[in-house]
Amino acid sequence: MDLLKCNVSDKNDWNTRLYIQNWEQESKQGFKDSNLENQCKHRYKIYIEGWAWSVSEKYIMACDSMTLDNSKCTSLKFAVEWGNNHKDKAKAIGEAASNFIQEDLKMDYVYDYMFHVLNEYAKLLKFKPTIPPNAVELCSEKMACRATGTCKKFMVESMVGSPSDELPCTLPPPYDPLALHGFLVRKANSTRQVEAWENEYWQSIEKKQ
């Protein structure tokens, strides 16, 4: 709710448009106002961490939209201003995220990851799972029947048509301390650079006033 303070008002326009989602009402009307395809029309989208398992970030990244973290109003305004003044770079950032989702997060790779996760999880089980006697099998084709457009296209692409003729991928080893330190240093340096740009932006605004 604190983020809603960054919405447009009579006093300020932080270049953000924020909406409250009534999920109970959405569920009753078939989520027609929260369709993921319709959300891809925005140039920028804010990613907000959820309270539990969050699935929204990959959909935001797949939209070719430049993803904005939910910092505060000044940071959001700076990010939008920067993107509007560097449209080619903002477009490249959005397209790079979209390509990452479509190429590096292909369902084949997701299934490989699920294979490793379930195998490791199975080692922790102390009982043998069984199928309940009244269980009903749900076919993947039935799940995709009601879908339309791009949503159905991706659902069909993710369906398993036959057993794979390849072994699942081999998980890379964890970072060694030196490599992990190098990654964290590069990330911190990038963050500091953006923060410096933001400070310069607001200092220039204050000088003009």
UniProtKB/TrEMBL annotation:
Q: Where is the Glycosyl transferase CAP10 domain?
A: 1-128
**Pfam families registered for this protein in UniProt:** Glyco_transf_90
> Which SMART domains does the UniProt record give?
CAP10 (SM00672)
Q: What is this protein called?
A: Glycosyl transferase CAP10 domain-containing protein
State the species of origin. Prunus dulcis (Almond)
Q: What is the lineage of its organism?
A: Eukaryota, Viridiplantae, Streptophyta, Embryophyta, Tracheophyta
